[in-house]
Amino acid sequence: MRILVIEDDREAARYMIRGLRESGHVVDHAEDGETGLMMACGGGYDTLVVDRMLPNLDGLSLVERLREAGNGTPVLFLSALGDVDDRVRGLKAGGDDYLAKPYAFSELLARIEALVRRRSPGEVETRLRVADLELDLLARTCTRSGTRIDLQPREFRLLEFLMRHAGHVVTRTMLLENVWEYHFDPQTNVIDVHMSRLRSKIDKNFDQPLLHTVRGAGYSLRAPD
Fold first, then answer.
1. Segments of the chain assigned to CATH 3.40.50.2300
2. Chain-wide mean pLDDT for the chain?
3. pTM higher than 0.90, yes or no?
4. In this structure, what DSSP letter does residue 163 have?
5. How far apart are CA 117 and CA 83, in angstroms?
6. What separation, in Å, do the N-terminal and C-terminal C-alpha atoms of the chain show?
7. What is the pLDDT of residues 111-164, one digit of tens each?
8. Cα-based distances in Å from 63 to 16, 43, 44
9. What CATH number labels 2-123?
10. Which 8-state DSSP code applies to residue 219?
11. pLDDT score, position 124
12. CB within 10 Å: which end of the chain, N or C, has fewer?
């Protein structure tokens, strides 16, 4: 599942994102309402977790604009404002569920999963495919041209992130934040080592390479022209 967390409290966001990623989800993060709206409008998310109180654009206005634009992605509001009137305002703005802070992570996760199930089981992405490379997100398996490829957990997560951004350049910073959960550069070759191992597994014994290094920019996973 691909989730966008829009939360300006960095510690709260870090806690939530870590838990969601440990649960097997791909998570992007925006720290203010305007950035969150731009990312949400780009589509591709299974659900949004939106804080009510955000800089630049508050959560209610953000969701109202999304709905006006025809974006129906399920939204879970998070807020320290937990009175009945506050919850009603959140739902009337276009939210699908409302969870007051502080919350238990297990409840947050259960509510997110319920929102996506309610939307439509058929819309939940369980397989990713680029050319003849396929990733089964439920069985946690990888195949290319029908051949099973064994991946370590970190390699699986790395490949999933690359496939979700197929055709685009993925920077080192994006990988550090989303795959390794580093918000700083550790000044190591950890990315290069994992990329080399991943390339040897998904490209070495096949005619057409899928994983490419974009000099000075990052990496790109894309189907052959």
1. 2-123
2. 88
3. no
4. H
5. 27
6. 28
7. 998 888 776 544 556 788 999 999 998 788 999 999 999 999 999 999 999 998
8. 20, 14, 16
9. 3.40.50.2300
10. E
11. 55
12. C
Where do the H-state alpha helices sit in the chain? 10-22, 33-41, 59-68, 84-92, 105-119, 153-164, 172-178, 190-202
Distance in angstroms (rounded) separating the CA atoms of residues 71 and 65:
9
- In one letter, which amino acid is 161? F
pLDDT for the residue 179: 87
Nearest Cα residue to 181 out of 1, 13, 43, 4: 13
CA dist 44 and 46 (Å) reads 7
| Tally of residues, the chain | 225
Token readout for 112 is 């997110």
What are the residue ranges of CATH 1.10.10.10 in the chain? 127-221
pLDDT digits (tens, 9 = 90+) for 16-59: 998 898 888 889 999 999 999 999 987 678 899 999 899 999 99
**Measured distance CA(146)–CA(213) in Å, rounded:** 25
| CATH number for the domain formed by residue range(s) 127-221 | 1.10.10.10
Q: Which residue has the tokens 């957990």?
A: 153
